Amino acid sequence: YEWEVSTSKRLHEAVLKACGYTGLGLTPDSKTVYAVGTDRKIKEIFEAQQIVREVSITPDDVQPTAIALSHTGKSLLVGTSKGTVRSYSFPISKPDDYTEYIGHVGMVNRLRVTYQDEYAVTIGDDGIVILWTLQEVGIAKKEKETIYAEEILITKTDLEEKNALIRELKQRVSELREENDYQLKLKEMNYAERIRDLTDKFMQEMENLKTKHTVVTGEKEKEASRHAEQLHDLTEKQLKELQDLESSNNQKLMLEYEKYQDLQAKTQKTQEDYERQLTELENRKEEEVSQQRLQFTAQLERIKNELILTPF
């Protein structure tokens, strides 16, 4: 938008919804505006209402963020999202006809050229303000220097008053310097005293910590020794109990083995006695059977003989 400041009236506008403008620059005659925005193009706007030309920024990953023209109207500067500043020949003939200078770490937010085209000032996202010497990049305007006379016309009374004022100011400056030196000396003495006190306090605390550390270390060593002794006693006790248990088990095992041997001997003897008794019983039975057979045989012979002798 172009506004008339005195009446707060809007005179012209060049609205482009697809582009959000981030920087503007005016030609020396203030008739043409050069603008950059989010669509990555440098726009030439005539009388703030008609876009007469657009130049694309290359490469594609670079976004123009600020723009300024030299007062001579021969060069155009563009700040980028990469933190660089580009110097285009003006008017722009080719999009890639520029010289690029590296300055900021982040994006360039603002870009201005001083009145006599001696410097360019940039402000970036990195919080740094850079003052560029435009004469080094061939942009500075070379104008004839104004020659000033060394003589000054002044009355004697004014000169004496000024000289007296200068002497008074010099005296005041000297007094202020002495007062400042005195105050600085007092502060240095106070700081030295505080440093000495803090150093003494620190040393005392350090000694206390060393003593505490020594005590804690001694207690730790005693505790470790006590634990080692307890562990040794416990190990010896467990070993003795294990040996006693093993000896007791061995004795029990021997007693059980002896019982087993006795039991086995008794079993063997019982088995032998049983077999002997069984043999004796069998022999006795056989003898009784033999005697009964003999008796039956004798009786049978006697009966046969009686039957033969008895007449029918």
TrEMBL record:
Coiled-coil intervals, chain numbering: 159-306
KW Coiled coil (keyword) present: yes
Keywords: Coiled coil
Domain of life: Eukaryota
InterPro entries: CFA-57, WD40/YVTN_repeat-like_dom_sf
Membrane-spanning residues: none
Listed PANTHER family: CILIA- AND FLAGELLA-ASSOCIATED PROTEIN 57
Protein name: WD repeat-containing protein 65
Source organism of the structure: Adineta steineri
